[in-house]
Amino acid sequence: MNTELANEKLLMAASSLDAEAIKASALEGADIAQVDKASKSLLHLILRSVENQEEAITTAHGMEHGPKGFKDDALSGAFLEKVQQMKAQASSALHMLLRVAPAGTLDLQAKDAGYPPIVIAGGYGVGSKEGFDLLRKLAN
Predict the structure, then answer these.
(1) Taking the model in full, what pTM does it have?
(2) Buried-most residue among 75, 93, 95, 126 (CB within 10 A)?
(3) Which residues contact 23 (CB under 8 A, 6 or more apart)?
């Protein structure tokens, strides 16, 4: 497969939080450093996708925020379950990207809204301890 197509697949995989597709695109020869630079940070792209998907889930459920949270408890439970599933997907995608990226290809100090990816991931509640430890180790 050519690098340009593999790069496009990597970009789509990261934005859709698809860990297996991230791995496949790396195996197909994606230039992770090039995609990371072009998208201003693949790690931030994954984290922005969390925010976008959470918004999409909210819209799909027709959720209305009242002063004390969601007005319908059943919908609130369904929403929270889907958000937790999405955050687990994002955690897997982040971890896979960190595992398949050759040393030095990801800009771990890149900032989005003034914050590096590890700070944003922590704020979103995305990432396992193992993933955070790997991110910290690579960032140092």
Answers:
(1) 0.79
(2) 93
(3) 96, 99, 100
